[in-house]
Design goal:
mainly alpha; three-stranded antiparallel beta sheet; 9 helices
């Protein structure tokens, strides 16, 4: 076995694709909730977002900070002292009030297509769509 190339082989591609649904579902949920349209009004605290969208305390900052990490939101401060705003591309393409909005296709993907992909294994085994 050639050990020279062995150090170049990593599981990063496997993990990126295998866990890719985390990022996808987070974006789909944010669009469906209208988060980017809400933030088009201007930056808001996590608590203001929570009140306006009716979100629970438990994972509020995990959700918002995941969107920061993914590059969809920008943040200043930490937790209760944080303020969130749309990243420039989110403002342009994910605010439902913009003519350039892609929110409709993202909502359709979540509401109509996501469950088909969730049932892919069963469909492959049975040949039937759920």
């Amino acid at each position: 076995m050639d050990h020279t190339n062995e150090s170049l082989v990593t599981p990063s591609k496997i993990m990126q694709i295998g866990m890719g649904f985390w990022a996808s579902k987070t974006l789909l949920t944010a669009v469906n909730l209208g988060l980017f349209t809400l933030l088009s009004e201007g930056s808001m605290s996590g608590r203001d977002i929570q009140r306006r969208l009716g979100l629970h305390d438990r994972s509020l900052y995990d959700f918002l900070d995941t969107l920061v990490t993914l590059g969809f939101l920008e943040r200043t401060g930490i937790k209760e002292n944080s303020s969130y705003s749309n990243a420039p591309d989110s403002d342009l393409f994910l605010d439902k009030n913009q003519p350039s909005s892609m929110g409709g296709i993202i909502e359709m993907a979540k509401n109509r297509l996501y469950h088909f992909w969730n049932d892919l294994e069963d469909s492959l085994k049975t040949g039937k769509h759920q």
